[in-house]
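quick q for whoever's on today - can somebody do inverse folding on this one?? i tried earlier but teh output was garbage lol. C-alpha cells:
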C-alpha cells in the first residue's frame, strides 16, 4: 500500500511545481512587458547564463506539457510543440526578472541608469509613441516611450543616455530619458 501513495505524492508535487512555475513566469512576463520596466545592464550581464538555462528548461517543460496534454488533437499538439519552446523560453527567462521587479517596491528610489541607444521608432505599440530602443536589452523590454522631440532629435544609435525612474541599480521603471 505504501508504494502506491509515493507516485501519487510525487505527481501532486510535480503538478504544484509546474503550476507555480507557470504562474510565476506568466506574472513576471506580463509585468516586464506592461510596466515599462528596464533591467540594468549589470543585472542582464550577471544573469545571462542563468536566463539561458532557465529559459531552455522552461521551453522543454512547455513542450512536454503540451505533448502530454490530455484530450488534445494531434494537430494541436504538433502546433503547441512548434510554438511552445519560444513561449516557454521567453516566459522562463523572464522569471529571473522577479527580483529587480519587486525590489523597487520595497527599497526603491529615484535612479538614473546608463544605457546606449540602439535606435529610434515613431511607434512601438498601442501607447508607445516617440520611442527610443536601447542596446543589449531583452526582446520587448528595452524601450523608453514618449520621449520629447527635443531630446529625440539629438539621439542616434550608439549615443549614451540615462534612463530615469523609480528603481534600484538592478532595474528601473522608466519615466524619462536624458543625455549623458
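ok took a stab at it. sequence:
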Amino acid at each position: 500500500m505504501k508504494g502506491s501513495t509515493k507516485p501519487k505524492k510525487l505527481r501532486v508535487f510535480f503538478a504544484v511545481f509546474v503550476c507555480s512555475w507557470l504562474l510565476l513566469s506568466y506574472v513576471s512576463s506580463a509585468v516586464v512587458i506592461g510596466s515599462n520596466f528596464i533591467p540594468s545592464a549589470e543585472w542582464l550581464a550577471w544573469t545571462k547564463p542563468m536566463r539561458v538555462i532557465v529559459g531552455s528548461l522552461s521551453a522543454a517543460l512547455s513542450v512536454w506539457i503540451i505533448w502530454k496534454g490530455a484530450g488534445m488533437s494531434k494537430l494541436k499538439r504538433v502546433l503547441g510543440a512548434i510554438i511552445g519552446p519560444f513561449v516557454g523560453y521567453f516566459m522562463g527567462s523572464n522569471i529571473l526578472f522577479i527580483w529587480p521587479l519587486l525590489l523597487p517596491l520595497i527599497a526603491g528610489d529615484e535612479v538614473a541608469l546608463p544605457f546606449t541607444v540602439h535606435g529610434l521608432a515613431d511607434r512601438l505599440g498601442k501607447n508607445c509613441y516617440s520611442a527610443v530602443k536601447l542596446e543589449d536589452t531583452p526582446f520587448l523590454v528595452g524601450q523608453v516611450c514618449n520621449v520629447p522631440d527635443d531630446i529625440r532629435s539629438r539621439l542616434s544609435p550608439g549615443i549614451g543616455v540615462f534612463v530615469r525612474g523609480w528603481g534600484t541599480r538592478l532595474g528601473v521603471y522608466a519615466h524619462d530619458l536624458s543625455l549623458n
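fwiw Strands lie at 37-39, 109-125, 128-134, 143-144, 160-168, 171-179. also The helical segments are 2-34, 41-67, 74-94, 98-107, 149-152. so keep that in mind when u check it
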